[in-house]
Write a structure and sequence with these properties.
Elements lengths: L1 H13 L11 E12 L5 E15 L13 E3 H4 L8 H10 L1 H22 L10 H9 L10 H7 L8 E6 L10 H19 L66 H16 L1 E5 L5 E5 L2 E2 L12 E6 L6 H7 L3 H13 L12 E10 L2 E11 H15 L1 E5 L4 E5 L3 H6 L16 H15 L5 H13 L6 H13 L19 H20 L6 H11 L1 H22 L1 H15 L13 H24 L1
Parallel strand pairs: 1-4
Antiparallel strand pairs: 1-2, 3-4, 5-6, 7-8, 8-9, 9-10, 11-12
Helix pairs in contact: 1-8, 3-4, 10-11, 11-13, 14-15, 14-20, 15-20, 16-17, 16-18, 16-19, 16-20, 17-18, 18-19
């Protein structure tokens, strides 16, 4: 997995033909404030700008402080802090406001001193003379003027976080973007690399690229940003990190990250690859006209549609080509799904839209504090990937009656809707955001769709539980989920559920579901819409204890028929014939005492299929 991420990062670098400064010593940073100074080093202004991405020195901070050359946050660049930040509020709560102010003043003073110290090695660069004057020879008009009071009076609360770039009046580029600065950063980095390589312990073969040209050792890997989970640390989370109390992970006389045997170049490129997968996308807007991002290589596919899950799935191909099949999982188009299924099942490899020689990769990840948890890893050929997606759509296909078109159609459920069909609801009908099953369900569905694997039976329990408690009962999405769970868990040639009404030999549980739906329709015909019909009162009972439940149901049904024969005799005869037709497939005097879990699923599918058939009859009538 790390190797493929690293290869992706290297391919992304090779595609940046318009950026000559692609190097391990540099990384992309975002600036949101600009400090403008005059050639004599005096302050002009500090102002917010629209967020901009720039190449800057790559600095990896852990628990200590380390200044980035010429561009950093306000604490480093001008030695100020934000008293409205969460950091200050936390310290104030722990130590009191006075001690919090005192502590942060010392902290930013140390950061500023370190930032200025980094400038000492740039004295020979004449183009940076104004910057050195700002910090050293013209302190009163320079850094002294950009004090705490100036910062708070001129920068709004919402703009105080982020990096500050330095601009000399009249210059076309920021100070850190000058060619001479980039060359100095790279030269210093490569000099340090040569020193590290001179040590025999660092000159070993990288476990990822297999080369020895970059040092391997105990260095901190860069963080990944945007991984869902609990509150993300300000810098992001680490995918690889060997640390802990009492110096663990030293069984083979290796310290910390020496254990992973990854060189500095691969460590940088795998982070770049994963950060790109998590963030790449196009800007868009929500229905409420708010800014949003439609992700290209991540599910959920939109930032606004994170569904409060603590899990994200990323995916890509070796050749980094588009995957329209993934879009079908999010928004199935029946025509496109049919084309995909036909292309795969017929073996037509000349259809270039769906069959290309390539490799598909995907993994699921979650965040926990400063660490990243990898929940699974998928590596398969693009042909097998598409075959799995085609099989997935065949397995989730379920018949649904369209009252507008007055015909049955095949319904392909969205992956998200399948996951939501298991999610708990609040008393007001809204989805419970604290129900952790949504994330677990989504991860299992993703894996099953891509690998053609069975789904766990606990998901069937959740789906049936929601069918019993939800006002909508067995919906099309819920029926599709139950169908794919049952069919993919069949062992030894059991009953396969199709997308429409079953003909021929059917399990008792399936027929009982049909009979229950028919009894429900008879009650509706006799009494009309009721707040609590037999579904609300008896569905769970019939689902689990059919013998006892159907005894009561048939007793109620006789009363409903008595009323119908008096008021609507023609309809009574029709419904009675339909009920008898269903009952002929089982011995109604010997209903099972109870249904096992899989049989409860068959009951729910039989109920759903019968309901859809009845919807079509009502529409025609």
């Amino acid at each position: 997995m790390i190797r493929e991420l690293s290869d992706l990062g290297k391919r992304l670098r090779s595609q940046q033909t318009d950026n000559q400064w692609v190097h391990d010593a540099l990384k992309e940073e975002t600036i949101s404030l600009v400090l403008t100074i005059k050639p004599d080093g005096s302050l002009v202004s500090l102002r917010p700008i629209e967020r901009k991405t720039t190449m800057a020195e790559a600095v990896q901070r852990t628990s200590g402080i380390e200044a980035r050359l010429l561009v950093d946050n306000c604490g480093y660049v001008i030695g100020v802090y934000d008293p409205d930040s969460s950091v200050f509020k936390k310290k104030a709560k722990e130590k009191g406001e006075s001690r919090a102010h005192e502590g942060l003043k010392k902290d930013v003073a140390a950061k500023l001193a370190l930032f200025v110290h980094r400038l000492d090695g740039l004295g020979d660069l004449e183009e940076l003379a104004p910057v050195l004057k700002f910090y050293k020879s013209n302190k009163e008009g320079g850094i002294g003027a950009a004090n705490q009071a100036y910062f708070l009076n001129n920068i709004a609360k919402k703009d105080r976080a982020g990096n500050v770039a330095i601009l000399v009046s009249g210059d076309a580029v920021y100070a850190h973007e000058r060619e001479s600065v980039y060359r100095r950063i790279i030269a210093n980095y490569e000099s340090r690399q040569l020193v590290r390589l001179s040590s025999s312990s660092n000159k070993i073969q990288c476990s990822i690229c297999g080369r020895e040209e970059f040092p391997v050792g105990d260095f901190t890997h860069y963080p990944i940003k945007g991984v869902p989970g609990d509150k993300e640390p300000a810098g992001g989370r680490k995918l690889i990190s060997y640390n802990g109390d009492n110096n663990p992970f030293e069984s083979y006389e290796m310290v910390g990250n020496e254990n992973c045997v990854i060189c500095t170049n691969c460590a940088k490129t795998y982070v770049e690859g994963l950060n790109w997968l998590l963030s790449d996308g196009a800007k868009t807007t929500t229905k409420k006209n708010k800014e949003d991002i439609a992700y290209s290589h991540r599910w959920p596919r939109k930032r606004s549609q994170n569904y409060n899950v603590d899990t994200a799935m990323v995916f890509w191909t070796r050749e980094n080509k588009a995957l329209p099949e993934i879009d079908q999982l999010e928004a199935p188009d029946p025509d496109e799904v049919a084309r995909l299924i036909d292309s795969v099942t017929s073996g037509r490899e000349n259809d270039s839209r769906y069959l290309e020689p390539d490799q598909f990769y995907s993994f699921t990840l979650s965040g926990s504090a400063a660490r990243i948890i990898v929940r699974d890893w998928i590596e398969t050929s693009l042909h097998d990937f598409r075959a799995s997606i085609a099989k997935w759509f065949k397995d989730v296909a379920i018949t649904k009656y369209d009252p507008d078109l007055k015909q049955f159609k095949t319904h392909y459920a969205r992956l998200y809707d399948l996951a939501r069909s298991c999610q708990r609801k609040n008393s007001d009908g809204s989805y419970d955001k604290d129900d952790a099953s949504l994330a677990r369900t989504a991860a299992y569905l993703w894996n099953a769709a891509l690998k053609n694997t069975p789904l766990p039976l606990w998901m069937l329990t959740k789906a049936l539980q929601r069918a019993r408690l939800d006002n909508h009962g067995v919906t099309s999405d819920r029926a599709a989920l139950i169908k794919v769970i049952l069919n993919r868990n069949i062992k030894g040639g059991g009953f396969m559920i199709t997308e429409g009404m079953e003909d021929g030999s059917k399990p008792v549980a399936y027929v009982c579901g049909q009979i229950f739906a028919k009894l429900e329709s008879i009650q509706y015909a006799a009494l009309g819409d009721r707040n609590a019909g037999i579904r609300e009162r008896y569905f769970t009972y019939a689902l689990t204890s059919p013998a006892a439940a159907f005894g009561r149901l048939f007793n109620l049904n006789s009363k409903h028929f008595t009323k119908l024969r008096t008021e609507r005799p023609g309809l009574a005869v029709t419904l009675d014939k339909e009920l008898q037709e269903l009952c002929k497939d089982i011995d109604i005097r010997r209903f099972p005492a109870n249904f096992a879990l899989e049989e409860q699923g068959q009951f729910a599918i039989g109920y759903y299929h019968q309901r859809q058939k009845q919807f079509s009859a009502v529409t025609k009538n």
